[in-house]
Amino acid sequence: MSLLKRVWNISDRIDIWLTNKFGLNAKQKLLEMKVDACCAGTEEALNEALGLNAYYSKDYTITKNMVLNFAEATGDLNPIHFDEDFAKQTRFKGCIVHGMLTAGLVSASLTDHYGNGTIYVSQNLTFERPVRVGDSVRVTFTGEVRNEKTKFTSLYVKVFVKDKLVLHGTAVIIND
Q1: Are 167 and 128 in contact (CB under 8 A)?
Q2: pLDDT in tens, 162-171
């Protein structure tokens, strides 16, 4: 992972921690903490120090049926998802799964973890690598910050195929 990507990845997690610990104004005062943390050691050590280790993990296997059903529901019939001959001519060298299908597994995981009635309010996602039919993806959550007054919860989301990060970002939910 490039230094710039690592800084931004760490930045998201530190923002969640700072908001939880000190409120929104603390982010400005402690901005230099992001750079120091980036250079301080391993990602695992940083997560441990900030209390941001994964507290939820669920595996899904992507099937052709899932891709077909997603395309039917959304109308996204881009040939990159279905036409192997077309897809071989692209930078991906083969068919890839809809990115939002993978993001949809985050939504399903939120309900699985937080329960029925959970509302997905917002997301900020970055797609790092393609997902393909047959891949086993692991959805993880870290860094939960809950506002008891509003019942909003912010968390950091990562999705992996094997040990490769394919999607990450932040999610905000309402869970009474």
Answers
A1: yes
A2: 989 999 999 9
Q: Note whether 90 and 80 are within 8 A (CB).
A: yes
Residue range of the domain that includes 150: 54-63+97-176
Q: Are residues 16 and 58 in the same domain?
A: no
44 and 59 in a common domain = no
Residues 58 and 135 in one domain: yes
Distance CA 122, CA 166 (A): 19
CA-to-CA separations, 89 to 29, 86, 167, in angstroms, rounded: 49, 6, 24
Per-residue pLDDT tens digits for 63-87:
999 999 999 999 999 999 999 999 9
DSSP string, 91-145: TTSS----HHHHHHHHHHHHHHHH-TT-EEEEEEEEE-S---TT-EEEEEEEEEE
